[in-house]
Design brief:
Blueprint: E1 2-5, H1 7-20, H2 25-42, E2 49-54, H3 58-72, E3 76-81, H4 88-96, E4 100-101, E5 118-122, H5 134-142, E6 148-151, E7 173-177, E8 180-181, H6 182-185, E9 195-199, E10 210-212, H7 215-221, H8 231-234, E11 236-240, H9 246-256, E12 263-266, H10 270-279, E13 284-285, E14 292-295, H11 303-312, E15 317-320, E16 336-338, H12 341-348, H13 352-357, H14 359-370, E17 373-376, E18 382-384, E19 390-392, H15 405-418, H16 423-442, H17 449-454, H18 456-461
Helix pairs in contact: 2-3, 3-4, 9-10, 9-15, 12-14, 15-16
Bound molecules: ligand NAX, adenosine-5'-diphosphate and potassium ion.
Subunit structure: Homotetramer.
Keywords: ATP-binding, Isomerase, Lyase, Metal-binding, Multifunctional enzyme, NAD, NADP, Nucleotide-binding, Potassium
Catalytic activity: (6S)-NADPHX + ADP = AMP + phosphate + NADPH + H(+); (6R)-NADHX = (6S)-NADHX; (6S)-NADHX + ADP = AMP + phosphate + NADH + H(+); (6R)-NADPHX = (6S)-NADPHX
């Protein structure tokens, strides 16, 4: 599992370790990891040109000490000072190793003489306010096209919530220390990090703020049938979907009927039930006892009634699409809401752009507001529980942004709820498998929603 911590948690853990270790140990570990990552990126050190952008804090210190290591290995290292002051010990080490300070801006002959092979962003780290000063923006602009390695975080992003407010660095690689920060996992900032490499500092960390499940976590959470199981003990998922748009109903069914639950019931209108019978002989048509319901996908105006009927059953419910227009004041704790950014914006009475710019904050707001798990769909879908747990989905490909993919997800999460996973785990595991199925189905090319559903069993088969 990848875990992310807040700045406050990181500082506390660093403080405890700093008190035990000789001065400079942590920064030395950070600089060693950073220098090694830069050498890996460049494919070697000797003769490579490295440009350091140094701010005034310890982030610049990390970059300067890493620059000293790179200079000792034969890199030509130059540094532009962008802060009101500079980490003096780091700068001294850099100079002693043969690195030199050059003026920033377009100062011509005394500026860096040739195009660097890499820019190291040590402008600000976890102590930075969001945004960048104009000099930093100009310097980055000047080296546009050169690969950027960010130290700890891309300077200028909002570290604790993944927001982007104002100018920021867009990195090819971010080398972070001790633990991931929230901005490495949560969009839109996560998209500005590029690849993320973690350097161990030996921190003792408190419980995490945000996690990203990995294949092994999904494997251990997923309920696999045992020798004594039968279809009812494995769980029955019911669907009241597709009342207005039968296609969405069939797609939610395809997600639910991927084999994870013991049985699937379809309890929608007769016209759609006929289509279901023709398409899926394994699905039982008609209402009956279930362990979880899925409502809303393609539901149209009937979604409110479908939701009320499902809630009356007092089993966990997935509320998708049109169902999200009809939420009661409060929902049972087992409920999973599956909005995309537009739907969440409407639910909260804000603009879509506000949700897209502050995804964690808005998903948390919805989880609090309705006392339910909120699965906010997007490039890195977020799952947030009312108790504060949060998970980011790292699987998937942009081809997954295709009509009906969300209906498949709603069905899949319903099936997982029916197997007995709690609402948070069902949403996080479902979202992970949905992305993994999309990646498999895509293999680099376009995909359709039915193909995503068909690839779910293979995604499960490939789990460790
Ligand atoms: N605390 C520790 O023990 C360790 C810290 N490390 C490094 O230290 C960093 C944190 O260092 P600091 O606490 O000194 O903070 P930073 O280096 O992140 O930034 C603080 C400085 O930047 C200025 N600043 C803030 N926002 C700015 C902005 N938007 N534009 C320009 N300047 C801005 C502040 O006035 C302050 O002088 C971490 O990100 C990491 O790189 C690592 O060396 C590992 C160990
Ligand atoms: N850029 C993207 N990259 C990867 N996945 C995406 C991206 N945009 C959306 N998705 C995923 O695609 C699916 C789209 O669902 P949704 O918006 O509900 O579509 P529909 O209502 O047509 O089913 C969601 O699972 C979402 O996480
Ligand atoms: K940085």
């Amino acid at each position: 599992m990848r875990s992310a911590h807040t700045v406050e948690q990181v500082r506390a853990a660093e403080g405890a370790l700093l008190a035990e270790l000789p001065a400079g140990t942590l920064m030395d570990r950070a600089a060693a990891g950073l220098a090694a990552a830069v050498v890996d990126l460049l494919g070697g050190a000797y003769g490579r040109r490295v440009l350091l952008l140094l701010g005034s804090g310890d982030n610049g210190g990390d970059a300067a000490f890493a620059g000293a290591r790179l200079a000792r290995r034969g890199c030509a290292v130059e540094a532009v000072l962008l802060g009101s002051s500079v980490h003096e010990a780091g700068l001294a080490a850099l100079r002693a190793a043969g690195g030199r300070v050059v003026p920033g801006g377009s100062s011509g002959e005394s500026g860096p003489r040739s195009r660097p092979d890499v820019v190291v962003d040590g402008i600000v780290g976890i102590g930075g306010r969001p945004g960048l000063r104009p000099e930093a923006v100009a310097e980055l602009e000047r080296h546009r096209g050169v690969p950027v390695v960010s130290v700890d975080v891309p300077s200028g992003v909002s570290v604790d919530d993944g927001r982007l407010v104002g100018p920021h660095v867009t990195a090819d690689l971010t080398v972070t220390f001790g633990t991931h920060k929230v901005c490495h996992l949560v969009d839109p900032a996560a998209a500005a990090c590029g690849a993320v490499e973690l350097v161990d500092l030996g921190l003792r960390l408190p419980p995490v703020d945000v996690v990203a499940l990995q294949a092994a976590d999904v494997s251990s959470l997923l309920r696999t049938p045992g020798d004594t199981d039968h279809k009812y003990t494995r769980g029955v998922v019911g669907l009241r979907t597709g009342t207005a748009y039968s296609g969405a109903g069939l797609l939610s069914l395809a997600g639910a009927a991927s084999g994870l639950a013991g049985m699937v019931r379809y309890a929608g209108p007769d016209e759609v039930a006929d289509l279901v019978r023709a398409a899926r002989p394994d699905v039982v048509v008609g209402a009956g006892r279930v362990q979880a319901w899925v409502v809303g996908s393609g539901g149209g105006d009937a979604a409110g009634e479908d939701l009320a009927t499902a809630l009356a059953d007092e089993v966990p419910v997935v509320v998708d699409a049109d169902g999200l227009r009809h939420l009661p004041e409060e929902l049972p704790a087992g409920t999973v809401l599956t909005p995309h950014a537009g739907e969440l914006a409407r639910m909260l009475g804000v603009d879509r752009a506000a949700v897209e710019g502050a995804q964690l904050e808005h998903a948390r707001r919805a989880a609090d507001r309705w006392g339910a798990v909120c699965l906010l769909k997007g490039r890195r879908s977020l799952v947030v529980a009312p108790d504060g747990r949060a998970a980011v989905t790292s699987t998937g490909v942009p081809w997954l942004a295709t009509a009906g993919a969300g209906d498949v997800l709603a069905g899949l999460v319903g099936a997982l709820l029916a197997t007995g996973l709690d609402a948070f785990d069902a949403a996080a595991v479902g979202s992970w498998l949905h992305g993994a199925a999309a990646t498999l189905a895509s293999a680099g090319g376009p995909i359709t929603a039915p193909e995503v559903a068909s690839a779910i069993p293979e995604a499960v088969r490939r789990l460790p």
